[in-house]
């Protein structure tokens, strides 16, 4: 199927490395984020975030019943975009980022 992704997925960068994610975030302000494929588990994703302390990488894991969870303490979500939307207006359930929300999506640079 050749469908275009909805514009809300512009923060999804696919199979870039942690290092590449940090290079992109380095130029951005605090609370900027992007989502990429996890380098360690192929069904999971990583949320890379710029915080005042530097960079944070949080796992977006798929549960046995095909839901998604952020870190250890988030609610269950049906999809990654739902997680991103939820935490764009609420504080993250992640130690070290409790004061932060996902404010600035780093858009993928299309050619």
From TrEMBL:
Residues spanning the signal sequence: none
SUPFAM superfamilies (UniProt xref): SH2 domain
Domain of life: Eukaryota
Keywords: Apoptosis, Phosphoprotein, SH2 domain
Gene3D superfamilies per UniProt: SH2 domain
GO biological processes: apoptotic process; signal transduction
MF GO annotations: phosphotyrosine residue binding
Keyword Lipid metabolism: no
InterPro entries documented for this protein: SH2 (IPR000980), SH2_dom_sf (IPR036860), SH2_domain_adapters (IPR051846)
Xref: PROSITE patterns: SH2 (PS50001)
Boundaries of every SH2 domain copy: 11-106
Phosphoprotein keyword on record: yes
UniProt cross-references to PANTHER family, sorted A to Z: HEAVYWEIGHT, ISOFORM A, SH2 DOMAIN-CONTAINING ADAPTER PROTEIN F
Protein's recorded name: SH2 domain-containing protein
Organism of this sequence: Astyanax mexicanus (Blind cave fish)
């Amino acid at each position: 199927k050749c469908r275009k992704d909805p514009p809300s997925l512009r923060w999804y960068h696919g199979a870039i490395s942690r290092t590449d994610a940090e290079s992109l975030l380095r130029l951005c302000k605090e609370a900027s984020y992007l989502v990429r494929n996890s380098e360690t588990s192929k069904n999971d994703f990583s949320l890379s975030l710029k915080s005042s302390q530097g960079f944070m990488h949080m796992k977006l894991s798929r549960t046995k019943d095909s839901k998604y969870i952020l870190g250890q303490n988030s609610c269950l979500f049906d999809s990654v975009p739902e997680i991103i939307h939820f935490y764009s207006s609420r504080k993250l359930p992640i130690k070290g980022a409790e004061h932060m929300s996902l404010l600035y999506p780093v858009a993928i640079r299309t050619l």
